[in-house]
Amino acid sequence: MTPTERTLARLPAHLRRYVVSQDYASYTPRDQAVWRHILRQLRGQIAGKAHPIYLEGLEATGIGTERIPSLDEMNEQLAKLGWGAVSVRGFIPPAVFTELQSLGVLAIAADIRTHEHIQYTPAPDIVHESAGHAPIIANARYAEYLKRCGLVGFKAISTVEDEAVFQAIRNLSVVKEDPSATPEQIHHAEARLDAANQSRRYVSESTRASRLYWWTAEYGLIGSLDSPRIYGAGLLSSIGEARHCLTSEVKKVPLSLQCADTEYDITRMQPQLFVARDFEHLFEVLEEFEATLAWKRGGDYGLQEALRAGTVNHLVLADGREVTARVAEMLPGLHPVAEGLSTALVRLDGPVLVSREGKAEGKPWPGLALVAFGAGALPDQGPFQLELASGLKLQGFAAGGGEVLNLRGQLDGRPVALPSVAQLFLTSHLPSVAGGPADPGTWDRWFGELNAFTEGEGEAQARAKKASALHPSLAALYREVRAQRESKSLDVRRLEQISRAASDFPEDWLLRTEIDELKAARA
């Protein structure tokens, strides 16, 4: 079993299906030149600017300068740090990315940017994911922060609008990396993203979590305000950003919870960056952020967040059961039920899945479900009458397994409209309401909602177009220059001939740069 196969084997099935083969042979000679050009420049300008662990981490995680790293090489090194990496195509759903990270697995975009976007690309690529994220993992404390940050993002509640924004961002990145894309297609993709952003009714927990991640793990600085170092992967993997971020043109502010409420634009260099005192400072802000989430707060706050999100989330009951469904309606009670909870009853739209510690218990319930708050218990079978602390009175017939028939309710002497058949859950309080299904794998198998994601089809097509756009004669010249570099026996006369032949491709500056570097090294 290869190192990559060992990493893949420890993932649950619902995550494994997002993984693709790196297909190392499909990297073109120009792709290899793009990697080498970026890594040489980054190494040259990062020295003295990055956190000290960065250059050490490049070696520790199997990332060299001369060629694109293979996932097997990376996994062999990452395993020593308790981490792994898998190959994916472009943008994957945020819940998948964050769950992978919480498990100590980096999602490495298999594709690499074009030479036109060599300074910076908004699309995920192997430069950003491997040369940016992986090296800092060599610091154990920071590696733990990445896992915790992934868990927080996974538990945050997202909205239906968040999904629209994700699809629009993914589409824009594919279009911009497609060499055959027309100006009209690019304009449409940009307009789609703008419309998706404008459709947001409010800033969701998931959006705030992504901002915190952006301003720390992606675009974070560390140290003093006057002389910070770079640790964010987005800065470390971008020649343009790494050069720009420490100049006086970029405002530096102390890291605080304000970062979760600060928007960012992935299509341009950032005008302001947050500076962490040290890696412990990251945990301080993360814990402060966690305390704001429905995952930690539960109660009425958590229910309201799930209700307005309109997405599938899960309620954690007092006995540890996790009820996955969409919160459809909240009925306020006459009296508080518990601290932070005055709701008497919640209606859940089916399907409903019950789990415990992330493992499903039985089959999903296809219909409506109700969660009633207050001390009490249903009989296994037979008629029942309940009077709960909220003032809600319920009666009906327990059919077994939580199913109730002929259900009726009263609150303050007035009847409450209830379904005649439902799944009924009773709980004394509500410790947590968290994003997504509690058991994503089982939910996915039954309902296939997560299958709406097409596994990198657009990104794979863009990659194929990019490869076919490389003229065979130009590819042959790249291969010959690379062969001379690897042989360490330079034929300057032949390099001159290749340089003249490259003039047939005036827009391809990278090959000429490669030749000039070799000639300069010989001189």
Automatic annotation (TrEMBL):
A Pfam short name: Biopterin_H
Domain of life of the native organism: Bacteria
Family: Belongs to the biopterin-dependent aromatic amino acid hydroxylase family.
Cited PANTHER family: AROMATIC AMINO ACID HYDROXYLASE, PHENYLALANINE-4-HYDROXYLASE
Protein name per its UniProtKB record: Phenylalanine-4-hydroxylase
Family matches, as CDD domains: arom_aa_hydroxylase
InterPro entries: ArAA_hydroxylase, ArAA_hydroxylase_sf, Aro-AA_hydroxylase_C_sf, Aromatic-AA_hydroxylase_C
Annotated binding of Fe cation, by residue: H128, H133, E218
Domain Biopterin-dependent aromatic amino acid hydroxylase family profile: 1-339
Cofactor: Fe(2+)
GO BP annotation list: aromatic amino acid metabolic process
Molecular-function annotations in GO: iron ion binding; oxidoreductase activity, acting on paired donors, with incorporation or reduction of molecular oxygen, reduced pteridine as one donor, and incorporation of one atom of oxygen
